[in-house]
Amino acid sequence: MKTKRHAILLAIIAAAGIGGARSTSAADLTRPAPPAPVYVPPPFTWTAFYIGGNLGGAWAQGNVTDTLTALNFSNGNSNGVFVGGGQAGFNYQINNFVLGAEFDFDLAANNNNATGGVVIAGPLGGHTFTAGVNNGWINTFTGRLGVAWDRVLLYGKAGGAWVGNGGFTVTDVTSGLSITGSSNNSNSGWTAGAGFEWAFANNWTVRAEYDYIGLGSRSFTIPATSPVLPGDTFTANRNIQMVTVGINYLFNWGSPGPVPTRY
């Protein structure tokens, strides 16, 4: 009798074990698999050193006057020239604000911005003369301040500017004689501008920019032995406007750390 009771108890325990195992297996089969990790890209940052190139146009607006004829040889005309070069700088982003500094260097195609006048008195009466100044290169060093909306940046800039001058050229169109000379190799001034920049990839941006460069005056006195207006002194007051488009590569040392994931 006792042996029969033990057999019944063992049967009950075995049945309970089998039922629990079946319940566990069923629960395992109906439980959904954990979702795969979802890639979350790091937020974009403008904090970086950068280097790039640009192309565009420049317009030199100014006046060239002289002491002998008292003529205005430029009459406020704007003369366009092709420019191209590069830039390098640094950005630091704080919330939506971007601070930075930039150095630009552009070469300008030789542009003798010459316009003419007619001398109506003296031994050169009736002769037509032209006078112009060549701008060979343009350097600027500026501070930048902008507002960023993710990958879009609007900014302003201001600082110093230096323009390399190829020299004055004065030509007597009537006789065909001319003289070229220079009293300075460069002309310094100030610059201010604004631009738009878009990061189309994590390390690449494109931009469009406008700059105004205000320059001091330069003068050139023709030697007394020259056949063209000897002893005449020419003074140029020239300002430059530039419109360029460019591309930059960002060295994103300030970008966030490891790429996060979420489930």
Summary?
11% of the residues lie in helices and 59% in strands. The protein is mainly β and 263 residues long.
What is the topology?
Elements: H1 2-30, E1 38-39, E2 48-66, E3 78-94, E4 97-108, E5 115-118, E6 128-149, E7 152-172, E8 177-181, E9 186-201, E10 204-215, E11 218-221, E12 233-251, E13 261-262
Antiparallel strand pairs: 1-13, 2-3, 2-12, 3-4, 4-6, 5-6, 6-7, 7-8, 7-9, 9-10, 10-12, 11-12
SSE succession: HEEEEEEEEEEEEE
Structural class: mainly beta
CATH C-level class of the largest domain: Mainly Beta
Number of domains: 2
Number of helical segments?
1
What is the strand content?
over 45%
**Strand order of the main beta sheet, please?**
2-3-4-6-7-9-10-12
Could you tell me how far the N terminus lies from the C terminus, measured between alpha carbons in angstroms?
60 Å
What's the CATH topology label of the largest domain? Answer: Porin
What Rg, in angstroms, do the CA atoms define?
A: 37 Å
- Shape descriptor reads rod-shaped
Number of strands: 13
- pLDDT < 50 runs, ≥5 residues: 254-263
Q: Major beta sheet, specifics?
A: 8 strands, antiparallel, barrel
